[in-house]
Amino acid sequence: MHKESQMFKDRFWGRTAVITGGASGAGKAAAARLVAEGARVALWDQNQEALIQAQAEVGATSTHVVDVADPLSVQAAAEASHAALSRIDLLVCSAGITGATAPVREYPIDSWNRVISVNLNGVFHACRAIVPFMIANKYGRIVNVASVAGKEGNPNASAYSASKAGVIAFTKSLAKELATTGVLVNAVTPAVFVTPLLEQMPRSQVDFMKAKIPMGRFGEVPEVVAMISWLLSEECSFSTGAVFDISGGRTTY
């Protein structure tokens, strides 16, 4: 257990959470911390083998093979998760892909469509399916994982940048809709973190992004998980529709 989790070991006692992209990276790390701090967690991911391993490692209550780009798959997983957990208090939308690295004039249309479907439509599908459960309980915390690319736009990554900008705008819109319901919705905008997502990018793209971080290093997953955990907690009570930067100084707006 991380020392932070030990400090807040009962912070999520009795709470339940759904985490998309929960079999690896920040999603898996967030699940581990939530479980360590008392929550019961349902993991969603496309990779069944990775889900089984993640469940064993983090102690998740249930796992569900889900394609977040498919609304029927998401709705079925939401209902199954609700049945397994009895309620859904928390949602982390961290499923995402990078897509091709290419200028717009050469960008593969199938890659564009898939990135938008997973990164943006996937957040919409998950929120649409789970928000009704939260409204019924008059309580909820949603954290959507966006990116600094959604603020600045990365060259040769138009689909990824556009999808993450959409996540930011969607978060603000949904938060205003739910502002009086007890359900708070916020986004985080990480810079480059050391996750399996880096392996999908060419070295030139990785070096370019690192060079733009004033602190001169990539972020560590526990750092973004700490921010996500606070946003999911009851301590976060007057922030909604906000975008929380975690970029080593790259984006200070």
Give me a quick take on this structure.
The protein is of the alpha/beta class.
Write the layout of secondary structure elements.
Elements: H1 3-7, E1 16-20, H2 25-36, E2 40-45, H3 48-58, E3 62-65, H4 71-85, E4 90-93, H5 109-137, E5 140-145, H6 149-152, H7 158-177, E6 183-190, H8 203-211, H9 221-232, E7 243-246
Parallel strand pairs: 1-2, 1-4, 2-3, 4-5, 5-6, 6-7
Helix pairs in contact: 2-9, 4-5, 5-7
Notes on the protein architecture:
- The structure is a single chain.
- This protein is an alpha/beta fold and 253 residues long.
- The protein has one domain (3-246): Rossmann fold (3-Layer(aba) Sandwich), CATH 3.40.50.
- The protein is 46% helix and 15% strand.
- The chain is built from 9 helices and 7 strands.
- The chain has a 7-stranded parallel beta sheet with strand order 3-2-1-4-5-6-7, with helices on both faces.
- The mean pLDDT is 94.
Keywords:
single chain; 253 residues; alpha/beta; Rossmann fold; seven-stranded parallel beta sheet; 9 helices; 46% helix
